[in-house]
TrEMBL record:
Record CDD domains: S4
GO molecular function, one term: RNA binding
Organism: Bulleidia extructa W1219
Protein name stated in the entry: S4 domain protein
Alphabetized InterPro entries for the sequence: S4_RNA-bd, S4_RNA-bd_sf
Bilayer-spanning residue ranges: none
SMART domains: S4 (SM00363)
Length: 69
């Protein structure tokens, strides 16, 4: 049996990967302070799994989660 690649990305990693924050510590702070929305709802869990089609809003800009492989 072959394993499938991960089909999600964690919120804190999404913010870092796309350059919306500089460090993991910054990612933790902005998420826990309620400054990030996922699908138009405030999200305070750093480990929130994001799947293709989810929308992340930060600093007034919305980003669509696309292929996460």
């Amino acid at each position: 049996m072959t394993r499938r690649k991960q089909d999600y990305i964690c919120l804190q990693n999404f913010l870092k990967f796309y350059g919306l924050v500089q460090t993991g510590g910054e990612s933790k702070v902005v998420i826990q302070e309620g400054l990030v929305k996922v699908n138009q709802e405030v999200e305070t869990r750093r480990g929130r799994k994001l799947y293709p089609g989810d929308e992340v809003t930060y600093q007034g800009k919305t980003f669509m989660v696309k292929d996460v492989h």
